Amino acid sequence: MRLLRHPGSAVAGEAASDRKLPGKLSLQQLPIHELRSLCPIPLFQIASSQRMGRLNNLMLGTSAGDEMATETIAERLSPQSNGMLMTADEFDSADAEPGWRYELIRGVVIVVPAPLEQERDPNAELEYLLRQYRYQHPQGHHLDKTLPEHDIQVGDDRRRADRAIWTGLGRRPKRGETPSIVVEFVSAGRRSRTRDYDEKRKEYLGVGVREYWIIDRFTSSMMVYSRSAAGYDNKVLERDDVYSTDHLPGFELPLARLFDLADEWDD
Known about the structure:
By secondary structure, the protein is an alpha+beta fold. It has 2 domains: 16-112, no CATH class; 117-264, tt1808, chain A (Alpha-Beta Complex). The protein has 6 helices and 12 strands. The strands form 4 sheets. It has a 6-stranded mixed sheet. It has a two-stranded parallel sheet with strand order 1-2. Helix 4 runs antiparallel to helix 6. The chain is globular.
């Protein structure tokens, strides 16, 4: 994933509540240069007085029941939504312009470009192998569902995972139910690596994901984090390894098959 920022905006996801207005002034009372320094999003994205009121509440630390509280505003997510403040309920009910990925981190919308072919193609192959296992293997009933591009609820945050896998339920998962396994295909860039290897690892395992697979085409390796009594265990697999897991008895994942597909898209 590559982070899309608007010029002049703060780093998306930065906690606006850590920054206080001088003397408890409202945003409308601040000089424009001070507002620009405090505002975690570009000013042109504050589309209404209600949105300004919500930003003011966040800066001042006031609650939804205070005088400045605002009503829910219907939104359509688009690339211009990057950095916009939203609640989890607003985010969940919003329509979205296709062709982009949307996440909600600490009340801030993050917009990133869709995955490249180097990530989509091996992800599609992984789905094929999982569904083949589901319908042809004697123990395929252990796989309940698998979905690409799935939103994972992490408290009030929303992470978009490359693939979610539910196992051992014996039924279709409920909407919003935490997957057993989450898979991410690493994109280019240091920020993407930090997000996949560190931030998402803590978040996914923290909400009950049993295994987290990080498939890294740049190192031709796969990192598997799994929950344990000590917190989590991790295992590194190389390109020629075949991975199996107790959550999918009899399933085998030949990693070279995924990496070969990713390599085909390299110019």
